[in-house]
């Protein structure tokens, strides 16, 4: 099967699915099939990536999710409406097969009349350099915004999971709807091994295109981190609000390589 997925609406041959009079959640699930479901995915991580960090991110699992990689627990996430991620580096078999297993439970009362169970959003397997932007680690605000110019403050959390001090350069760009750079900031900072540092930058956006219902102008924010370990590109989609150029991150950081994990 492919993700996203909702097993409550599966049409199973020889059954009355998706509806069942004895459905475990009864009216709370609209009398659709609930219960416990399992997902498994076998994938390979090239041996050449050993030394990189490996993360698994779930955009949404409903609900009471429990995750294992190669038979070892990564963790649990009971809430069904938020994204979550795990660092799986120490559990990955580099150069060999890996099995990701996910259990989801939809039993009993729900938050609304119908909440379909399963991995209902995408799953991402990420490989990153030891020094990288932490997941959801970019925070954007606009302290001032006028028709002439806007000051955009970008605070970016970078973690160094390498064995030694890393001298990092973070370049942050604002791009308009055409993909053109309209503002840029560059900051250098040293991050100790095992530490997390926040890069605090200010970008000036001249004559900002203001958001309105008729012209919902959007900007993208991109951060590029350079270091001795390599480099990591991060794209964060950002959207202006309330007629100003306030930018809010709405997507997770994208690493150098990214793979969609889909069940089969």
Structure report:
By secondary structure, the chain is mostly beta strands. It has 2 domains: 122 residues, Galactose-binding domain-like (Jelly Rolls, Sandwich), CATH 2.60.120; 126 residues, Immunoglobulin-like (Sandwich). Helix content is 0%, strand content 50%. The strands form 4 sheets. The chain has a 5-stranded antiparallel beta sheet with strand order 11-10-13-14-15, with no helix packed on it. Strands 1-6-3-4 form a 4-stranded antiparallel beta sheet, with no helix packed on it. The protein is flat.
Tell me the count of domains.
2
Q: In the CATH hierarchy, what is the architecture of the largest domain at level 2?
A: Sandwich
Topology-level CATH name of the largest domain: Immunoglobulin-like
- Spans with pLDDT under 50 lasting ≥5 residues? 227-264
DSSP summary: helix tally: 0
What proportion of the residues form beta strands (DSSP E)? over 45%
CATH-wise, what's the superfamily of the largest domain?
A: Immunoglobulins
Helix coverage percent: under 10%
Q: How many strands, what sense, and barrel or not for the largest sheet?
A: 5 strands, antiparallel
Rg (C-alpha, Å): 22 Å
N/C terminus separation: 5 Å
In N-to-C order, the SSE pattern is: EEEEEEEEEEEEEEEE
What features would you highlight for this structure?
disordered C terminus, five-stranded antiparallel β-sheet, 264 residues, Immunoglobulin-like, Jelly Rolls, 50% strand, mainly beta
